[in-house]
Prior knowledge:
The chain is of the alpha/beta class and 239 residues long. The chain has 2 domains: 6-201, Zn-dependent exopeptidases (Aminopeptidase); 209-239. It contains 7 helices and 10 strands. It has helices spanning 39-57, 73-86, 117-131, 153-157, 173-180, 182-201, 213-238; strands at residues 6-11, 16-17, 20-21, 28-30, 36-38, 61-63, 91-99, 106-110, 148-149, 162-169. It has a 6-stranded mixed sheet with strand order 6-1-7-10-8-9, sandwiched between helices. Strands 2-3 form a two-stranded antiparallel sheet. It has a two-stranded antiparallel sheet with strand order 4-5. Helix 1 crosses helix 6 (182-201), helix 3 (117-131) packs antiparallel against helix 6 and helix 5 (173-180) crosses helix 6 (182-201). The protein is elongated, with a radius of gyration of 25 Å. The protein starts with 5 loop residues before the first strand and ends with a helix. Zinc ion binds next to loops. The site of zinc ion has 5 residues, from loops.
Amino acid sequence: MKKNKLIILDNGHGGYKDGVYVTAPSKMHVFEDGFTVHEGYFNREVVKKIAFKLASLGIPFINLVPGPEDMPLKDRVVKANELTDQWKGEAIYISVHSNGGKGTGFEVYTSKGQTKSDEIAEFYLEAMAEEFPDKAERRDDSDGDGDKEANFYVLKNTKCPAVLTESFFMDRREDAELMMSYEGMRKIVNAHVKMIERALSGRKEIPVIIPNPDDIRKEKNRKRREAEAKKKSLSSGKK
Ligand SMILES: [Zn+2]
């Protein structure tokens, strides 16, 4: 795995500052019994844990918004593009979010058109499906790949390949409980780290070897003759 790219981690929205959720009342969901998901806080927790893992792997990264403030999208992009220039274009932008709208499962967005981001997005879907085989993979295969394409500001305006991940729905109970559980969080973080590792390694093409029926027949005959010869020498030895 090459470690020559800067991983720019962007946690969507705001976090907790002085005991107050700065993005309230939006980007959060309160269930009837009071159970609450604060998306910006969740995003920060995921990014923090991805960063922790990347540091241990020696993969260069930056936590774009390390504090609780909800940095405006424009400022996030300016900062990301400055970093991308410093790294001579060798950067990957990952915006971490969770979904709303009472659906279920996970999905990933890239900017429109076929770009380098599409492969990275595919790695996210693949890794999430490995971690959560029972959860819905929300794909859009109409253009030949599984990511959804949208002109989200951070995707459209970043210079480097960029993806925006939506790991589950904060307003769907079973999704929300999974997101808020240590086990669910661990798997979400794992999937992001796998995506990054695969993006740095590139897709390994595994050659498909189709055996030739002639070779199979020859090999069978060779083994049969060998067995017969063995049998013969054994029986001759007994005499
Ligand atoms: Zn969001």
